[in-house]
Amino acid sequence: MQIFFPKEEPNEIRATILPEVAKKFIDLGIEVSVETGLGDNVFVSDELYKETGASICANKADGFKSADIVCKINKPTSEDIQQLNEGTIYISFLDPFNEKQIVSELASAKVSSISMELVPRITRAQKMDALSSQANLGGYAAVIEASRTLSKSFPMMMTAAGTISPARVFVVGVGVAGLQAIATAKRLGARVEAFDTRPVVEEQVKSLGAKFVKIDIGETEETDQGYAKELTEEQIKMQQEGMKKVCSQSDVIITTAQVFGRPAPRIITKDMVEAMQPGSVIVDMAVSTGGNVEGSKNDEYIFHEGVTIIGMSNLPGEVAKDASQVFGSNLFNMIEEFWDKENKVINFDLNDEILKGCVITHQGNIVNESVK
Ligand code: NAD
Fold first, then answer.
1. What is the tens place of the pLDDT at every residue in 88-135?
2. Which residues contact 209 (CB under 8 A, 6 or more apart)?
3. Is the domain defined by 2-129+319-366 classed in CATH 1.10.3720.10?
4. Residue nearest to atom 10 of ligand 1 (CA)
5. Ligand 1 pocket by Cβ (under 6 Å)
6. Which of 55, 161, 225, 289 could join 121 via S-S bond, C-beta 3.0 to 4.6 A?
7. What CATH number does the domain located at 150-313 have?
């Protein structure tokens, strides 16, 4: 059994695995090959992968030829899919609700594809949950980026020249990324407030020492996986009304609000941006799924009436080495879970709750119920 890790597209900083994880695959009895330069952006040389027993492939095409399993962080290109052998197991983020073309190409190529986004949120699968491992680092990076951009300090400082007030940070959406954003901003000494539509979050916000902003938007629901359900237009309006004052008083707003499988809710309007003090900063962590902030753009810094709106689509890439380490571990944990040691094969049991949730295509068909 051979597993191949091709290099990511040039705009990706993270590497799919680091050598420590390559070694774990080898110890399991799986041959590992990586495309030359896989770890370049995270300062890991081919040599370090080789030392673990992995082989280095000069190009993708060679790697695909002999691979039983192919793993990446980002979705494959059509050219990649054409080069995969029938029966290959392909694992990466696939964005299957939006990437219909890729899903149908994977099915036609008779590739067994797994979408890391759809790993179910059950206890047994937590160690494979790459959405969470990356969102956690993204939340940290968002606050660091905001602190670099803001022209004031995060902590309060009492100096001989007078007292500097702490920065006021407002976190909108308190899932995995939001919780880490709160924790990071608190560690830096900011005064932090937060809001989420799921009422259960209030306790978590308070336990981190932040203040929960209470806004009455009526009944809200969450799915059995813990995801928020979409608000009605009227509820979004109530939320905006309730947030206006906090927004206008904040030096930094970090938005992380997402609704699984749907475009991100548009929460911060142009008016709300304009009500902020010049010099304030907004980081829109939902920018690549439509954006929580009016005017935010993928991979751009927008300056609007003195407010900087940051739309970095790959925040985990700002801490690429750690993000690579945890992503690789998520992959390893998934493969180890289904590895049949005796027969040295993957036990591809589609009745298993985890595989049922995240396998998208198998033996020429789209097998995932929600994607179908
Ligand atoms: P997510 O990325 O889908 O969304 C981020 C946050 O945005 C969520 O907290 C959501 O409630 C919030 N949100 C949605 N619409 C909003 C709006 N209009 N205004 C403000 N906030 C809005 O969520 P996530 O980070 O993946 O996590 C969601 C929950 O699932 C969290 O409580 C998390 O702890 C839990 N979780 C559980 C597991 C598990 O294995 N059991 C794994 C990961 C996460």
1. 999 999 999 999 999 999 999 999 999 999 999 999 999 999 999 999
2. 186, 192
3. no
4. 228
5. 121, 126, 129, 131-132, 135, 172-178, 195-198, 226-228, 231, 239, 256-260, 265, 267
6. 225
7. 3.40.50.720
